[in-house]
Every structure is written in C-alpha cells, then in structure tokens.
Amino acid sequence: MKKTKRVLVCGAGGFIGSHLVNRLKSEDCWVRGVDLKYPEFSPTCADDFIVGDLRDPTICRGAVDQQFDEVYQLAADMGGAGFIFTGDNDADIMHNSGLVNLNILEACHRRNVKRIFYSSSACMYPEHNQMDPDNPNCSEDSAYPADPDSEYGWEKLFSERLYLAFGRNYGMEVRIARFHNIFGPEGTWVGGREKAPAAFCRKVAMAADGGVIEMWGDGEQTRSFLYIDECIEGVLRLTRSDWTGPVNIGSDEMVSINRLASMTAEVAGKVITIKHIPGPLGVRGRNSDNRLIAERLKWRPEAPLLDGLSKTYEWVKGQVLEQYSSDHG
Ligand code: NAD
What we know:
Blueprint: E1 6-10, H1 15-26, E2 30-35, E3 48-51, H2 57-63, E4 70-73, H3 81-84, H4 90-110, E5 115-121, H5 151-170, E6 173-179, E7 182-183, H6 196-206, E8 212-216, E9 222-223, E10 226-227, H7 228-239, E11 247-249, E12 255-256, H8 257-268, E13 273-277, H9 291-297, H10 305-327
Parallel strand pairs: 1-2, 1-4, 2-3, 4-5, 5-6, 6-11, 7-10, 8-13
Antiparallel strand pairs: 9-12
Helix pairs in contact: 1-7, 2-4, 4-5, 6-8, 6-10, 8-10
C-alpha cells in the first residue's frame, strides 16, 4: 500500500499557504497547518491546524513533533508596498520573519526532517539591476553583490543563506523559490497589506464607470504577476526536484503598473481615469527570468495575466459587494 505523505505547511492561514494546503489535500497527503490565524476567506482543509506563533521555539518544536516528508515554510511578516516599502515596519519584518526561520530550521533539524521548502522573494535582488523599467535583470545568479532595496529583501537573503547552510551542514534537502508578485482569489484585498493586483481590483470594483482611481507613482514602473495556481504548481515541482539553488517562480509577462490598472478596468468593463499620487514604490523595473526554471524543472509558468486578473477581479468584486451589504444592513 502507498504510504500517505505527511506534510507541514507553515503560514497555512495565509494566501499562498492556504492554497497549498488545498492542493496537498487533493493529492491525499496528511497535512498539518500552522499559523497565527486560520485562513480568512474559507475554512482550512488541513487535517490538523495549530494556531500558534512560530517566533516561539516551543511552538515550532510542537509543530515539528515528527519526521514530516515535506515541510513548506511560508510564514512571514508580509505585505504589499504599503507595508514593506515605507520603512515603518522594518524592525518587525526583520525580527519576526528572522525568528520564524531560525526556529523552524532548528525544529526540523531536531526531527531529522529531510526536505524543506522556503519561500524567498524577488525583493532580494539588487536594486542597481532594476533601475531600467524596460530591462531589469533578475537572473538567479545576479543576486550578488547584494543590495536589496528593502529590509524585507535583506531578511529574505539572510534566510536563503540560513537554509542553504542547514542544507550544507546537516544534509537537509533545501528548496528555495524567489516568488515574483503572486496574486489570485483569497488574497488580502484591503487593509494596507494588499498588493497591486488586488488593490486595483478593489478600486475598480468600487469605482463607477467613468470614475477615477488613485495610483502611487507615475505607473511607468514595471512588474510581472503570477497567478496562484501556477505558483503552487511551481512550488511542488521545485520541492520534489533535485535542484538545490534558489529559483525564480514568477511570470515573465512584464507590464507597467499603468497597464495593470487599465487591464483591470478592461476586465471590469469600465472606463477609469488614473490619478497619480505620491506613495511607496519599490524598484523601477522587475520581471521574472524563467530560463533557469525551464532548464532545471522542464516547466515554466505560462498562463496569461489577463486570465488570472479576470478570476481575481470577480472574487474581489464579490468581497466588495459582501462588505457593502454588511455595512448597509
Ligand atoms: P500572507 O501574509 O498571506 O501569509 C503569511 C502567513 O504567515 C500569514 O497567514 C501570517 O499570519 C503567517 N505568520 C506571520 N508571522 C507568523 C508567526 N510568527 N507565526 C505563525 N505564522 C505567522 O503572505 P503570502 O502572500 O501567502 O506569502 C507567503 C510567503 O511567500 C511569505 O514568506 C512571503 O514573504 C513570500 N512571498 C510572497 C509573495 C507574494 O506576492 N504573495 C512574493 C514574494 C514572496
């Protein structure tokens, strides 16, 4: 009889973690989730869910009380530009996420966990390679000499090295993805931690046809956005592969932020005017370089941005309507 895989997902109450739990359950794994909170938008389908703070080493040891076949570490103090680029949250971001990674690795080492996935971010790439919005360099080997533009990126870089060190010294099979702007249904869409696609979906859903929405900066900065289903596919393929080095998991369909907003308006069938206002921005250009993932995993994300944006818009619109009806009785 086939042995049931036992899997731990840290950050299982968050956006990517909760989608990952669903996918693992669809593969008949036994899944334990751990997070400060349950998923916000639908009940978890994890077999076991620990509500706990992974900054506490005792909680980490309790969560890793057995030898899991796979551990996915997605817990982080995290948010969009309004949270990570203002500078106001730097101490918390570095301290909280740093502690989580230190504790989880120690707990996994004690239990002899062999395979662990860590979610890094494209924010660890050096700023000087991302000044030209039309031609950013985010190949995996461009990470050093390091110069991320945020403390969030520095913590990710430190933790990448921490995971690699545990791999070298203790024989752990470490897998590291550098995510590039993951989006989709059941992601944060309001409250200050939401990212650009969800924020535009909300603003467009709330605006009247012919209305105005605000955007930070001139909108000429570029990014790529990866739909959640392809992110999960990439995470599983990477974790179960033989490749140890960090790999980009992102889309290479680069668009300006102005284009992202106009695509959202198109999806909604509305004419929208953009008002540019000052705000936190991040680097000028960023795109996922997918050569390494294609070479090593024989797979790369390919879904068009417009498809994912349509699904996300419908979901955010539903949330906006739900909130409106609960606010107005
Ligand atoms: P998220 O904020 O939705 O999920 C992170 C989860 O970690 C949250 O549910 C949070 O409660 C939990 N958490 C934070 N501190 C904790 C603690 N001390 N103990 C227990 N749980 C704790 O974010 P996400 O978008 O799902 O991101 C998942 C991972 O991917 C993060 O590590 C993030 O840095 C990384 N990442 C995400 C993106 C993206 O675009 N979503 C891009 C790059 C990297």
